[in-house]
Amino acid sequence: MIGITFDWKVFFDYLLPPDRLTRSALYLTLGISIVAQFFGVVFGLVSALMQRSKYRVLRFASGVYVWFFRGTPVIVQIFFIYFGANLFLGYDLFPRTLHLLFISIDGAVLAGAVALSINEGAYMSEIVRAGITAVDGGQMEAAKTVGLTQSQAMRRIVLPQAARVIMPPLGNEFNNMLKTTSLLAFISVRELFQDAEIRYSSSFKPVEYFSGVAVLYLFLTTLWSFVQRAIERKFSESDRDATVEGPGWTRRNFGRLVGGH
Amino acid sequence: MSLQQYIVDAQDVHKRFGRVEVLKGVTLQVKPQEVVCIIGASGSGKTTFLRTLNALETIDQGTIVVNGHRVGWTQDKNGSWVKLKERAMAEIRSEIGFVFQRFNLWPHMTALENIIEAPTRVRGQSKDEAIATAEELLRRVKLSDKRDVYPGRLSGGQQQRVAIARSLAMKPALMLFDEPTSALDPETIGEVLDVMKELALGGMTMVCVTHEMGFAREVSDRVVMMDGGVIIEEGTPEHFFSNPTHERTKQFLSKIL
After folding, report:
1. Would an 8 Å CB–CB cutoff place B90 in contact with chain A?
2. Most buried one in A42, A204, B193, B242, CB count within 10 A?
3. Tell me, what's the ipTM?
4. Domain map (residue ranges) of chain A
5. What is the CATH architecture assignment of A8-238+246-253?
């Protein structure tokens, strides 16, 4: 026998139940993931639409954006945005604590969320583009023949249909996002991984804490997989219940997010 | 001479796809309330020509005037011709109905929503007003009971009738039909042709690309035969089907009739 024992007490004390600090780390991981994914979708949508623009400048800008942020490691981008702003702008863009009206945000948290959003936008750009391309060209043509403008047709006809193609890879991206936030440990954001690391460094129980934190990540990703399945089921239901009277397909699935009445 | 002698006035229309010239100088004029059927083998350019009439295809040479508007171009204050802005083109298109071979209904909207979309978004009609018009149109195409049904639950013939109603909701001055029955099951072709027939009798100006010779013979005022990117023969249905003069027309008709 090698003299390594797994200290189950440390493991269970850490997880059952997590203390206040670990809970807030969990919320931070979840919060940053949701915010970064949301802005990632927004940036991706804008970038994908720019790619379809008739103006070469916009197409080019979008191309460079996707090329750069998909082509460099996200950890480099995080460091670059957190520390680099200071270097280029001559002042600290992300000070220790940011006071925005009534709320205070840790500068590293904000920088991290910004970096992840921008990075995610580059991936979402490709996903949205593929979704738009998947919608039959006749849909846009039909919209044009009744006099809808390009942007009306995009918003009302093409994007709602592209959304269902985008949804599965988007779910995948969010799963990734939940785990990628762990990189923010490198800029001292106390999310789940940083929390585990702090506990390990004061106890020298790496295996207990890192297997514990794996369980916490699994908890988040599993929870998400249920949510994702529910969302996708709702999509297919709208096909099955196509004859049922009620709010429109888009509205049932997206509320006011995309083109409701 | 009336203000609008022609609803469609297409002169010497040329269209190239890459190095292939699909239209080699097509000239066609359509008077108000006239029903013109364009026939011809596939590859003759008939669908492309129809699509140039509302600028789904831009032309390389020639002029097209529809309902008094030059399609795709406008005159600036110095009198020279400039490309129309997209919004202005959309406005012109809104007065031209177009019915596709493959319907192209929007699958995420019910029959009613498909019909009221453009009147509310483009014309700014109130929802109630648009719904009233849409319900009347659904009655006309005999689909009142399908008001809240999604296209996926409709047969091809029903979808095509909704698509026709969708175009009619914009009160177009001209209806263009691109082989509207070619993608349909034989048993549903009749219901679509009936709607078109009624429309023609109601005085709608129509240009139909079709393979339905019965419809062409019975409903149209004029039949136009296209071949190799040009019009090779045109005339009244009586003339056209009893004494076609062009050799190519005779061949085509003998194959199809």
Report:
1. yes
2. B193
3. 0.88
4. 8-238+246-253
5. Orthogonal Bundle (1.10)
